[in-house]
Amino acid sequence: MSVLSGKKIVLGVSGGIAAYKTASLVRLFIKAGAEVQVIMTPASKDFVTPLTLSTLSKNPVHSTFYNEVDENASWNNHVEIGLWADLMIIAPATANTMSKMAHGTCDNLLLATYLSAKCTIYFAPAMDLDMYKHPSTLASFSALKSFGNIIIPAESGELASGLSGEGRMAEPENILSFIENDMIGKLPLRGKKLMVTAGPTYEAIDPVRFIGNHSSGRMGFEIANEAAKLGAEVTLISGPSHYIPADKSIHLIRVISAEEMYNACHTYFENTDIAIAAAAVADYRPKNVASQKIKKAESSLTFELEKTKDILASLGEIKKDQFLIGFALETENEIENAKGKIQKKNLDLIVLNSLQDDGAGFGTSTNKVTFIDKNFNMEPMDLKSKGKVAQDILNKVIAHYND
Ligand code: CTP
């Protein structure tokens, strides 16, 4: 999945011959899963039509402050568009537009949006080779870079003038990979290894029956997906669950029993930075597993159960620098029980679910949790989707590394 998936991009097109390439650029952004709004300077419309870019971006294209289709409709609000964007790219960025950006000139919608945007801004210059080297152009580059904007350098080759040299706008594929690589490099969990457990475990009674629980695995899969989006190298150890990871980079290990989950966790834990135990591990398993299917001969049947290993507690015992997060699913004395688990299992953070809260626990798409850290600081959260709860948990992880 591209790091641009779900991102909101404003593409500002200024008036150079390279503007015709923005049709491909918009397509690449859309294929990467981004939402795109295009803003054109009036001059750029001589090189590519708004109709082309609105069709490809699936959004109206704006180049003036008033609504081009319906003059009585509200104006094109540059502040709104600027704040909507997760990132803005000006491509092609002509010498004229860059000079205006460098000096705060604001005589068209693209420049007003640029000045309003708070997101990361990239610019891909395009001009003839001598213009590209002119001291005033170089001064624009350094001013724009000093404002925190990121230059996507022009490439060398044949130019519209017939001359050959540096000044061609970077090819759309190269602009896309430049932005993707830049964003990947800045992801907050980049370089971190994260292990997460998910789902129920099944404890065999005989070859066809087991003891299990109602966990779907959703919470753990959401954590794995969100962590991968934040740049972590994710190992997901899951009991039986019908979910499949949305992010292809996730290393999925499927297990059945608590014993298998224990072994898998101990294989990866030493080499992990962050471990999150979201699995609903069976606490007991049949002491003797029948080798053949048990026949219904008797009027009642009794099993002797033995404790499974507490995976999380065993990780807490051998923990070095790992940031260790557990869950607690409680029905009464929630806070006290959760605090007890932090100490008993040597955790850095516990995510408490109370089954007394509506919308929390198994089989729901939502969860209501309270965070309790190892110093017993508590933070109750609102009822949220499990995806949003996963983001909150990972924000705690990021905060830990930023402290
Ligand atoms: N856990 C585990 N291995 C077990 C049991 C639990 O790793 N054999 C983990 C769970 O993944 C969860 C945390 O321990 O992160 C707490 O699980 P929970 O079921 O709330 O508590 P238990 O420790 O099993 O205690 P109890 O059932 O008595 O409340």
Describe this structure in words.
With 403 residues, the protein is an alpha/beta fold. It has two domains: 8-185, Rossmann fold; 193-292 and 301-402, CoaB-like (Rossmann fold). The chain has helices at residues 22-31, 50-57, 78-84, 95-103, 109-116, 129-133, 135-146, 172-185, 218-229, 258-268, 311-318, 334-344, 386-402, and strands at 8-13, 35-40, 87-93, 120-125, 150-151, 155-158, 164-168, 193-198, 203-206, 209-211, 233-238, 251-254, 274-277, 284-286, 305-307, 323-330, 349-354, 366-367, 369-373, 378-380, 384-385. The strands form six sheets. Strands 12-11-8-13-16-17-19-20 form an eight-stranded mixed sheet, with helices on both faces. A five-stranded parallel sheet has the order 2-1-3-4-5, sandwiched between helices. Helix 1 (22-31) links the parallel strand 1 and strand 2 (35-40). The longest helix is centred in the C-terminal third of the chain and has 17 residues, at 386-402. The chain binds cytidine-5'-triphosphate.
Give a brief rundown of this model.
This protein has 403 residues and is of the alpha/beta class. 33% of the residues lie in helices and 24% in strands.
Largest sheet: 8 strands, mixed
Q: Can you give the mean pLDDT?
A: 94
What would CATH call the architecture of the largest domain? 3-Layer(aba) Sandwich
CATH superfamily of the largest domain: CoaB-like
Termini separation (Å)? 30 Å
In what range is the share of β-strand residues?
A: 15-25%
Radius of gyration: 28 Å
**Helix amount:** 25-40%
Number of domains: 2
